[in-house]
Amino acid sequence: MQRTLAIIKPDAVQRRLIGKIISRLEEKGLEIIALKMTTISEDMARENYSVHEGKEYFDKLVKFMASGPVVILVLRGKNAIEVTRRLMGSTSGHEADAGTIRGDYAMSGRFNLIHGSDSVETAEREISLFFENETLLEHEMSDLRWVYDMPGENLF
Ligand code: ATP
Ligand code: MG
Question: What pTM did the predictor assign?
Fold first, then answer.
């Protein structure tokens, strides 16, 4: 099982979309193994988006991410990184496919509601930036054999 980090961004919190966004992640079958609501500092935002340093939108992105409360989650599941990115939709809200989080609720390229890690290395780095390893739940949901049709678990 793979892990990924998601951040429900300040625009989504202000627009009262936390519940809708978490529902989509949860209903897909991803397990939430850590969750907190907090305001991140500009330093943390800069660190999280360090690969974008030098881009013309970088400073505004950092200010936006530190502008108000966010919800940070660690999600676990098969191909969790790719699955989360597909649920999010493409970066620009007005271009994202209908049916995705951004496609259904966002119009902006910057205020696009949710962040998701984009590779295994990034995911592990971002998770350790926001959570101590021992605070990540090891608990497994009891429905996993129904979510995944696990070999050896089902009798048919
Ligand atoms: P995220 O990393 O937040 O999951 P993403 O991977 O879809 O989004 P990136 O290219 O990594 O997109 O950009 C990171 C974030 O920077 C975007 O989500 C958006 O908030 C902001 N951003 C990206 N491109 C632009 C741009 N041209 N103008 C303004 N903001 C931008
Ligand atoms: Mg990105």
Answer: 0.96
